[in-house]
């Protein structure tokens, strides 16, 4: 089996996604691979943010445009560095998480896509789909689903 050379990990700023970042970083360090950390977002205006905050409460951070995305990636870089990764690339991507991650994996010719399992075992995830389930089903590269939420 050949070692992974390019690993993509998705993060949305949740504690769960940072666990996936740490696991991906440890794998990248062990394989001397490039770690590409990606955070997908939709650009929004103030009215959209206020409406989302009312509905989503604690999850509203996911819809606030690129400024939080930069902070999310900065925190992820710190965690990845602490886990031993040295060749780290940060990517903010406009768009829906699943399609954005899959497009990035194809663009950088990644060997491995790492995501957390958040949403995988929820009713909404089973009915509507979840990021880990959808990327596992659609990806042409290996996918590691890190058990971050049990």
Helix-strand layout with pairing:
Blueprint: E1 6-10, H1 15-31, E2 34-41, H2 46-56, H3 66-82, E3 88-94, H4 97-108, E4 112-116, H5 123-128, H6 131-138, E5 142-146
Parallel strand pairs: 1-2, 1-4, 2-3, 4-5
Please give a structural write-up.
With 150 residues, the protein is of the alpha/beta class. The protein contains 6 helices and 5 strands, in the order βαβααβαβααβ. It has a 5-stranded parallel sheet, with helices on both faces. Helix 1 (15-31) links the parallel strand 1 (6-10) and strand 2. It is globular. The chain starts with 5 loop residues before the first strand and ends with a strand.
**Helical/strand content category:** alpha/beta
Major sheet characteristics: 5 strands, parallel
Number of DSSP-assigned strands = 5
Instruction: Name the poorly predicted regions.
Output: 120-129
How widely separated are the two ends?
30 Å
In short:
The chain contains six helices and five strands, in the order βαβααβαβααβ. It is of the alpha/beta class and 150 residues long.
What tags apply to this protein structure?
alpha/beta, globular, single chain
């Amino acid at each position: 089996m050949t070692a992974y050379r390019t690993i993509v990990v998705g993060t949305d700023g949740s504690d769960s996604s940072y666990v996936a970042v740490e696991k991906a970083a440890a794998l990248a360090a062990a394989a001397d691979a490039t770690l590409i950390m990606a955070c997908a977002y939709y650009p929004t205006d103030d009215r959209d943010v206020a409406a989302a905050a009312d509905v989503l409460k604690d999850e509203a951070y996911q819809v606030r445009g690129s400024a939080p995305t930069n902070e999310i990636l900065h925190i992820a870089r710190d965690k990845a560095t602490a886990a031993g990764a040295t060749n780290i690339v940060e990517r903010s991507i406009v768009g829906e998480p699943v399609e954005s991650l899959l497009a990035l994996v194809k663009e950088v010719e990644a060997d491995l896509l790492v995501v957390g399992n958040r949403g995988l075992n929820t009713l909404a995830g089973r009915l509507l789909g979840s990021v880990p389930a959808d990327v596992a089903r659609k990806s042409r590269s290996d996918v590691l689903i890190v058990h971050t939420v049990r």
